[in-house]
Write a structure and sequence with these properties.
The chain is mainly beta. It has 2 domains: about 100 residues, Thrombin, subunit H, CATH 2.40.10; about 90 residues, Thrombin, subunit H (Beta Barrel). Strands 3-4-7-6-5-15 form a 6-stranded antiparallel β-sheet. Strands 9-10-11-14-13-12 form a 6-stranded antiparallel beta barrel. Strands 1-2 form a two-stranded antiparallel ribbon.
Length: about 220
């Protein structure tokens, strides 16, 4: 699902001919139009636009697997690519369901990874000053020429607004893409106060959805 100009990788909880329910704890707003790409098990990709028709949140303090799966219900808007493949896929699922085949469980993952936000923050990694390209609740991509092997644990100092945070990270991948060279790192052993401060700062300073498009419920393009 594309949000804020970035692709966020999520998992479906259920599907229908007219749309899908995606597992996420950071849902877009009701009636918002989003771009969607669905990768079918056979490898074909169904893509198009969809409108947010309902949002489900997990009750505060509810254990995982209880209180409903957090996520967002999307209804297709306008034409979708590989529509025939999608209809065949949903039909096959209905056949499997009638045969008693396993379905999604409430304890399955809500999402594959934390949503990333484009934020340029000053960081000091391995004694060298760098900047982040994007930040999530679980890690960040850092623009740097420092070469650290995957699995390396390092200490980072990061400026978040008017304060500096210090924490450990683990290098998960080396990034060498067009226009960006650096490291993808995962946060390691953050204390509760530091994590809460980081999450609050990221959400307060994340790019907004000012260019969002909203659709009326009676729009004729809705499937």
């Amino acid at each position: 699902m594309v949000r804020r100009g970035q692709a966020v990788e999520l998992l479906t909880n259920d599907v229908s001919f007219r749309g899908v329910f995606l597992r996420t704890d950071t849902p877009p707003a009701l009636r918002q139009l989003v771009k969607l790409e669905l990768v079918l098990p056979a490898g074909s990709v169904v893509s198009g636009h969809a409108m947010v028709v309902h949002v489900t949140t997990r009750p505060e303090g509810a254990p995982k697997g209880e209180g409903g799966v957090p996520g967002v219900g999307l209804q297709f808007w306008g034409p979708i690519t590989n529509a025939r493949e999608w209809e065949q896929f949903v039909h096959q699922l209905k056949v499997r369901e009638r045969a008693g085949m396993a379905a999604a469980k409430a304890t399955d993952k809500v999402r594959r990874a934390s949503e990333r936000f484009k934020l340029s923050l000053d960081v000091v990694l391995d004694g060298k000053t760098s900047m982040t390209r994007d930040v999530s609740e679980s890690g960040m991509a850092i623009r740097t020429d420092v070469a650290l092997p995957v699995g390396t644990r390092a200490r980072i100092d990061m400026r978040a607004g008017d304060r500096w945070m210090q924490f450990d990270v683990v290098v998960r991948r080396a990034i060498d893409e067009r226009g960006f060279r650096g490291l993808g790192v995962e946060l390691a052993d953050l204390d509760a106060a530091t994590r809460a401060a980081l999450v609050a700062f990221v959400h307060q300073n994340a790019p907004g959805d000012d260019d969002s498009i909203f659709v009326e419920l009676d729009d004729p393009e809705l499937h």
